[in-house]
Amino acid sequence: MEFFERHQGGERAILVHLDLKQQAASLDEDLEEFLLLAKSAGAEILATVTGSRQKPDARLYAGSGKVAEIAALVQEKEAELVLFNHSLTPAQERNLEKELQCRVLDRTGLILDIFAQRAQTFEGKLQVELAQLSHLSSRLVRGWTHLERQKGGIGLRGPGETQLETDRRLLKNRVTMLSERLEKVRQNRQQGRASRQKAAIPTVSLVGYTNAGKSTLFNRVTHAEVYADDRLFATLDPTLRRIDMPSIGPVVLVDTVGFVRHLPHQLVEAFRATLEETLEADLLMHVVDAASAERDAQIEAVNEVLHEIGSTTRILMVYNKIDLMGSREPRIDVDDQGLPVVVWMSAMTGIGVHELKMAVTSLLVGDLREFTLTLPPEHSRLRAKFYELGAVLSEDSDEDGVNRIRLRLTAASLAEWLGRNGIAPETVGLTAEELGMAKEAY
After folding, report:
1. Residue 2: pLDDT above 50?
2. Nucleotide-binding among the record's keywords (predicted)?
3. Quick check: is 356 in a domain?
């Protein structure tokens, strides 16, 4: 639904970036990411206009001379769209479209458009539409004069709504409906997380800057076939997979949407249901493009979003793409307590995956303990599972086929596996107290 008369725009675009003196980032760094965003949206870039200002112009953001330069390029190149690498006010968008005689889109609108293209699931499409409508609501006031006229015709004359008021009401109703649907999605996700927590299954969530290699890493570890591409925001919809980790057992790995500098607030709010997977995780793997010249700025951008959604989860830094850094070898960096804080690896080539699993295991298992179990032959499937987990230290059996197995794993993990198989601790030579579990759990 189109709420106001605007130029329809298209794919043929002119990019505009102004280096503001008050900004710390350099022109080249911001412009490089802007070009990637435009290409990710499918824009055919006809020209790039750069310039410098002390501060934005209140009316046009750029100065009148720069706008005249852009207008001339629009005519010369027959451009259909002008993209600004800045956040424009509704008034600035209106004024620029009037001067340039074509569609004008700011950075927020461009990112929203990319998200709209990428969303595949019902949930993802709901979230994107909610973000778009939230952004659009502030733009309704900038519509042309026809929106201020009352609806006319037989039975509609006299006091009543203007078209603008009608559009506002319809938009508000749609936003309310989308918010209600997403609240149901949030409740469903919460039920799923509660089930995993009840089963003592840890959750590890991948976060990071867009195009840092999260989906490639996810595929490498889980042997899944999640879509991964060398472009911004290739992944929007969260994907969950169960994997088995040594000494831990099943772990749920979550691939999430990538972040970007100055991620529109509307997107953070709309994707809160998805980002709650991050909030509820037992461990975050912050995937970083270690070969990027913008590494530090990208790390800071991700930390800002995590702070905005209130995440306090423990973080393991994963410096990915070391294959692009020359001769760097995979390794684990530890803190003063000997706990892993950084893993250097390459998801594309697979080097460092073993180190990554070791680090995750070290952070998730807590205190590994040794247990000795007496398993009768009828529990052979559980015995096989312990071997599959790599938790068996030694084993001997008697003539009756009863196995005496020495294990190393966490009490919570052992309790979870016994409970899943309906085995009371006492029947295998343990006590519920040893496992820190109530007898009622079995």
Report:
1. no
2. yes
3. yes
Model pLDDT, residue 366: 64
State residue 26's pLDDT score: 41
Q: Are strands 315-320 and 340-344 parallel, antiparallel or unpaired?
A: parallel
Are 292 and 347 found together in one domain? yes
- Residue 403 marked ligand-binding: no
- Residue 66 lies in domain: 12-105
Domains held by the chain: number: 3
Q: Is 52 annotated as a binding residue?
A: no
Listed residues 365, 381, 397: the one ending a domain? 365
Predicted pLDDT of residue 442:
39
Whether residues 238 and 387 share a domain: the answer is: no
Known binding residue 208? Answer is yes
The answer to whether residue 171 is domain-embedded is no
Collapsed DSSP state (helix, strand, coil) of residue 364: helix
Residues of the chain with pLDDT > 70: what percent?
A: 73
Q: Where are the beta strands (DSSP E) in 159-224?
A: 203-208
Confidence of residue 68 (pLDDT cuts 50, 70, 90): very high
171 has binding-site annotation: no
- CA angle in degrees (0–180, nearest 5) for 8-271-25: 75
CA distance 389 to 245: 7
C-beta atoms surrounding 157 within 10 Å? 10
Query: Of 209, 236, 23, 13, which Cα lies nearest the Cα of 110?
Result: 13
**Contacting residues for 256 by C-beta, under 8 A, at least 6 apart:** 205, 206, 207, 214, 235, 238, 274, 275, 277, 278
Residue 319 is labelled as binding a ligand: no
DSSP letters, 376-420, are: -GGGHHHHHHHHHHT-EEEEEE-TT--EEEEEEE-HHHHHHHHHH
For residues 261-270, give the mean pLDDT. Answer: 67
Number of H helices, E strands in the chain: 13, 14
Task: Please say whether the dihedral angle defined by the alpha carbons of residues 143, 149, 154 and 155, taken in this order, is positive or negative.
Answer: positive
**Residues 27, 84: Cα–Cα separation, whole Å:** 14
To the question of whether residue 235 is assigned a binding role by annotation, the answer is yes
- Evaluate whether residue 129 is within a structural domain: no
Give the tokens for residue 176.
């309310």
Greater model confidence, 262 or 35: 35
Is 77 among the annotated ligand-binding positions? no
211 annotated binding-site participant: yes
